[in-house]
Structures are given as structure tokens and as C-alpha cells.
């Protein structure tokens, strides 16, 4: 730890997953100066993944999903400022200004401002019963309002929409998913996997409508039905909209480079001196491209890595393999790596058995990403193979008798053996 302790603190804007883990990492790395963690939310930091699953179902309480207590943050001498909205920063003066004109001085600044939900702007979108799920308050409202409601419409078949459909089916509700694209998740996982997840929802009794979109909600004060472009009428007493997110880049500066998210280098540095960014709000370099990841694992690891770089010394490159998971019905879904385009896909296992690994390979036969369905035993091996970036024989990957743990790169040779 090389950062000289000064009267000015390290300020972290955003008390979500990335911000909390960054603050803790600073202390764990031996930083003795002030740490100020600011958030516009009034809730203590909490974990978001359970909101669409265990919390909605009432299996976990608010206390269960709390990230850290006031006592634990106080013990680490982390100054938590809730309900404070930072509206501007000045990198030259090293200050952040709140909506109440409070001025926070800083020695170094970390932006972990997260992301915001895309809103659906159609006629009737202001009716009661139309919900979005991002915050604990959102989840509490949905859990309360959906008690006793039988018909639920979900707009968007992404991971949040899919998880909510699974949760609501467990409660015995009639669920309709409305998706603009031809297949759920196909833009991420490909058409074959999109078809698999379509059939998964249908097999669980969810009504899935694709290649259509909501144009209007009807009702007096409470939503009663959704109308679509193709003339469908979907009866519903509640609607959950999940159509993606937008990184929060409201803190602007003419010299702060933004392209969807705050652009950072491999060390988490923005284009402004002494200003860093991590987590959902950042665009970071991954294998020759700048990418944006909105998942728990990335927020934790990016926050920790960038926090270490705040302290000076030899900078540490962020090289983590992207990873996320989703629980739907009886499926544990895990995805490793990142790719927008792949040249071939290889299946190991049987989709009918709901237990398989699906590999995404580039033209050189290198695994860029992999989808695991109910095969957590393959997780470590898959992560290792993606990290090694060596060509792998497709026949080897597709062979169900091959244990991926035993697939390895031969020393000094550019190939993989078993």
C-alpha cells in the first residue's frame, strides 16, 4: 500500500456490490485513511441476485440479503452516506458535489454508480400494477402487490424476466412472457439455446409470445390487460417490465470518456486523473474489445481489483473471465466467457436430460465462452480452458466420456490433449 494518507479521503460513489467490496478491499490492503462510501439509495447495501428469486418468494428476508451491517462498516471505519445524490464532479479541484450542495473533497475517486432500468414508454404505462425490478424497494412492492393476483405478464425474456417467470410459476400464477425477438436469449446464447429456453418455459406452463411487443396497457387505475402490435390481448393484473439496463454515467466531464459506460483501461482508470470506475457502469478492455458486464461476479472482482490500484504501486490488470449464473425452475445455468460471434458450437451432454455444456468456439477452435446447464462440476475446468485460449479438438469436447478436468494444454505446445 503506497498511497500516502492525506486529510482527503478516497470517495466511492455507489454502495452496491462493486462499491462495498472496493471499500473493504482498501482496508484489507492496509489503507489507513478515510473511506467515504456514498449512495443515493436510503437502504443499507444489499445483495441483488436474490431479489428475483428467493426474496420474491418470501424464502429470504431483508436481513438475509443485506450485504453488510452498519456495525461491520463502522468497524472497518467506512463512512457510509446514504440518501446523498452526487450530481457533479470536478477532477481538477478534486471535489464531488451533491444535490444539496454538499461538497466532498477526495484524493482519489471511484465511480461504482451501477446501472438503471430501461423504461417502457407506451400508453397506459403509468397504471398501477406495472412494475420494474432493480432495487429492494421494487422487490418489496412486487411481493406485496402480487399477493392474491393470478395473471402476470412479463415484458422481456431476458434473465430477470425468466427468473421471475420461474418464481411466479412456483406460486401457482398464470404467467405470460412477451418477447420482441424470435427466441429468448438468442442474441446472447444463439438460436439453438434460444429454442431450448423457449421450450423450457413452455414445458413449465408459461405462455411465451415472441416477435411481438406491447403497444398499450388498459385499465381504469389498475392494469387489466396488455395490447400488442399484432393485436393480441393479454389479461393481467400485474406486469413486470425487464427490457435491459443503461449504465449510470450521469457524472460527466468534457474530458471523461464515455461510450455506454465509463471507459476504463485494464487498471480501472478513466480518462480523468485519479478517477476510476468499476462494475456495471464501466466499459473495460477484454481480449481486444471494450465490453460491459452487468453481473454480480464481475462487480465483486472488478471492485476489488480497481481498489488495489487506487493505492498506487505496481498496477494490477483486471483479467477475470466473465461469469454469471441464473436459477430457473430446476435449472442451474452458468455462463463463462464472453462472445458476440462464434464460428461453431459444440454440445457435450444431452439437452433432453437437462444436463449439458455448450461451448462457443472461434475460427481457431478456441473456446471463447461456454454455457453450463446443471453441470456445476464442469465450472472450474471450463473457466481454465477459456483462460488458456488454446485450440481444442471439437470431438474431444463433444465426447460425453471425456472428463473436462483432464483436458489440459501440453507444455511448450500449442495444442490441447487429454
TrEMBL record:
Gene Ontology CC: cytoplasm
MF term (GO), any: oxidoreductase activity, acting on NAD(P)H
Domain of life: Bacteria
InterPro entries, A to Z: FAD-oxidoreductase/Apoptosis, FAD/NAD-bd_sf, FAD/NAD-binding_dom, FAD/NAD-linked_Rdtase_dimer_sf, Reductase_C
Key word Oxidoreductase present: yes
Pfam families linked: Pyr_redox_2, Reductase_C
Cofactor dependency: FAD
Domain FAD/NAD(P)-binding: 9-303
Ribonucleoprotein listed as a keyword: no
Protein name: Ferredoxin reductase
Record-annotated Reductase C-terminal domain positions: 323-407
Organism whose genome encodes this protein: Virgibacillus necropolis
UniProtKB keywords: FAD, Flavoprotein, Oxidoreductase
Amino acid at each position: 500500500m503506497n498511497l500516502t494518507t492525506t486529510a482527503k479521503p478516497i470517495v466511492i460513489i455507489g454502495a452496491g456490490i462493486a462499491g462495498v467490496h472496493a471499500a473493504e478491499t482498501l482496508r484489507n490492503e492496509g489503507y489507513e485513511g478515510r473511506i467515504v462510501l456514498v449512495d443515493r439509495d436510503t437502504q443499507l447495501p444489499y445483495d441483488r441476485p436474490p431479489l428475483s428469486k428467493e426474496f420474491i418468494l418470501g424464502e429470504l428476508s431483508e436481513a438475509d440479503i443485506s450485504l453488510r451491517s452498519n456495525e461491520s462498516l463502522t468497524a472497518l471505519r467506512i463512512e457510509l452516506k446514504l440518501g446523498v445524490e452526487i450530481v457533479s464532479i470536478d477532477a481538477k479541484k478534486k471535489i464531488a458535489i451533491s444535490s444539496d450542495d454538499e461538497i466532498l473533497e477526495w484524493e482519489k475517486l471511484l465511480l461504482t454508480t451501477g446501472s438503471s432500468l430501461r423504461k417502457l414508454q407506451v400508453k397506459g404505462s403509468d397504471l398501477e400494477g406495472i412494475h420494474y425490478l432493480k432495487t429492494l424497494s421494487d422487490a418489496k412492492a412486487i411481493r406485496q402487490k402480487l399477493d392474491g393476483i393470478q395473471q402476470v405478464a412479463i415484458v422481456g425474456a431476458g434473465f430477470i424476466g425468466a427468473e421471475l417467470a420461474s418464481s411466479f410459476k412456483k406460486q401457482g400464477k398464470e404467467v405470460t412472457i412477451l418477447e420482441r425477438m424470435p427466441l429468448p436469449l438468442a442474441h446472447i446464447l444463439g438460436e439453438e439455446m434460444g429454442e431450448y429456453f423457449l421450450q423450457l418455459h413452455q414445458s413449465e406452463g408459461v405462455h411465451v409470445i415472441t416477435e411481438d411487443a406491447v403497444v398499450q396497457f388498459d385499465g381504469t387505475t389498475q392494469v387489466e390487460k396488455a395490447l400488442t402490435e399484432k393485436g393480441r390481448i393479454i389479461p393481467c393484473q400485474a406486469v413486470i417490465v425487464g427490457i435491459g439496463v443503461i449504465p449510470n454515467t450521469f457524472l460527466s466531464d468534457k474530458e471523461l470518456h464515455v461510450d455506454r459506460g465509463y471507459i476504463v483501461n485494464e487498471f480501472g482508470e478513466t480518462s480523468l486523473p485519479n478517477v476510476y470506475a468499476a462494475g456495471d457502469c464501466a466499459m473495460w478492455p477484454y481480449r481486444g474489445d471494450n465490453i460491459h458486464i452487468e453481473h454480480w461476479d464481475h462487480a465483486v472482482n472488478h471492485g476489488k481489483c480497481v481498489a488495489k490500484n487506487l493505492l498506487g504501486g505496481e498496477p494490477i490488470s483486471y483479467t477475470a473471465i466473465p461469469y454469471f449464473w441464473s436459477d430457473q425452475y430446476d435449472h442451474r445455468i452458468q455462463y463463462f466467457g464472453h462472445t458476440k460471434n462464434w464460428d461453431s458450437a459444440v454440445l457435450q451432454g444431452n439437452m433432453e436430460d437437462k444436463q449439458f455444456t455448450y461451448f462457443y468456439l472461434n475460427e481457431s477452435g478456441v473456446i471463447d465462452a461456454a454455457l453450463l446447464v446443471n453441470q456445476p462440476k464442469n465450472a472450474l475446468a471450463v473457466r481454465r480452458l477459456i483462460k488458456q485460449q488454446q485450440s481444442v479438438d471439437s470431438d474431444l469436447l463433444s465426447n460425453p466420456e471425456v472428463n473436462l478436468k483432464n483436458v489440459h494444454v501440453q507444455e511448450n505446445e500449442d495444442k490441447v490433449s487429454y
